Amino acid sequence: MIKIAMVEDDLELADVLTQYLKKFNIEVTNYEEPFMALSSLKLNKFDLVILDLTLPGMDGLDVCKEIVKNFDIPIIISSARSDITDKVTALQLGADDYLPKPYDPRELEVRIKTILRRFNHTKENESKIVKKFVLDEEKKQISKNENYVKLTAAEYEVLSLMIKRENFVISREEIFENSDLLNQDYESSGSLAVIINRIRQKIEDNPKEPKYLQTIRGMGYKFTQ
């Protein structure tokens, strides 16, 4: 059975969708309040999230950002907001699809299964690839070829973010936004570049010609392996 976490404060719509999707072996658990949804994602295994944007207490785009940051799960935005900026922002944040309300529940059912087929296929392919770098968030450790890389707290924060966003360009601003240790003083003093260089000294075969942690001129950094 496919398990869905829905974040929707329109309880009548949530009930209609829940009853409809049940016919297709899709079990929906709805959360009217976004903070409850985020807490539940930490405790329960879901296959996909259906997320409204207009929610009590927290904007849906912020919820989307938190889910992408902390969970490896596909997201369908289900929203009555017609501003194209919201759609573009949601997709840029990492949402997999955007379904404007009102829509036919049959379309939602098809999109759920299409996204899960693509997502699961990607995960299967990733599992076949042997990774040089492994991130252990529980222990806050990173290893290369099964050897622990000794990092400072700031170096770990930066490298762990890069590994989680592998193959994506991460801007300097996004690094600061996702860091509890770095602040704007690092940006003004150029210390972020110093941290990047220190990381390269520890993970690259040739730090002067980085293969894993690359600088993308004018955009930021990208981690590949």
UniProtKB/TrEMBL annotation:
Keyword Cell inner membrane attached: no
Binding region for DNA: 125-225
Protein's UniProt keywords contain Mitochondrion: no
PROSITE patterns in the cross-refs: OMPR_PHOB, RESPONSE_REGULATORY
Residue ranges constituting the OmpR/PhoB-type domain according to the UniProt record: 125-225
Modified residues (4-aspartylphosphate): 52
Keyword annotations: DNA-binding, Phosphoprotein, Transcription, Transcription regulation, Two-component regulatory system
SMART domains reported for this sequence: REC, Trans_reg_C
Occurrences of domain Response regulatory (ranges): 3-116
Entries under InterPro entries matching the protein: CheY-like_superfamily (IPR011006), OmpR/PhoB-type_DNA-bd (IPR001867), Sig_transdc_resp-reg_C-effctor (IPR016032), Sig_transdc_resp-reg_receiver (IPR001789), WalR-like (IPR039420), WH-like_DNA-bd_sf (IPR036388)
Protein name from the UniProt record: Response regulator transcription factor
Record organism: Arcobacter roscoffensis
Classification lineage: Bacteria, Pseudomonadati, Campylobacterota, Epsilonproteobacteria, Campylobacterales
